Amino acid sequence: MRLNTHSQTGSSKLPKPLIALFLVGVGLMYFIFLLAAFACFYYANSLLGGILMIALPIVLTAWYCITTRDICKAYIEINGNEIRVVDYYLGIKKERMVLFSDITSAEIALGYSHRVKGYRFSTMGTRHIVLKKDNKYLFKIIYLPETENIFKDFLV
Prior knowledge:
By secondary structure, the chain is of the alpha+beta class. It has three helices and seven strands. Strand 2 and strand 3 (82-89) form a beta hairpin. Helix 1 packs antiparallel against helix 2 (47-73). The longest helix has 27 residues, at 16-42. The model has no long low-confidence stretch (mean pLDDT 89).
């Protein structure tokens, strides 16, 4: 059984008009930065300021795209008594095996809690099940009814 770490398994796709609206908004944001870069180049005669105004949204967009892709690709796979945890950090795959017998406790924590490690959603009351072995962090998974049923024996 394979479960997404950060979203509901079998998550839905966004409708095309919503994606188009998002892209228009991003385009308008880039246009504001281009106007600021033009002002730096033309009026302030600042080459460095103009380059920074162009580089800033590109770097922020790249960071956002990488972390979003990493969050969407993360999952756990339950195979009998083994749990294969696959996380991505900056596009690099981190994989480890955890046995059900290794899990000693679990707690439900809000997304912005310091007990939830790694990438996570911390808005709108998103909760995660944090699984531990003797108070040592093992992994997390989003708190949904299906994940609660799987890990209910460990929840405090």
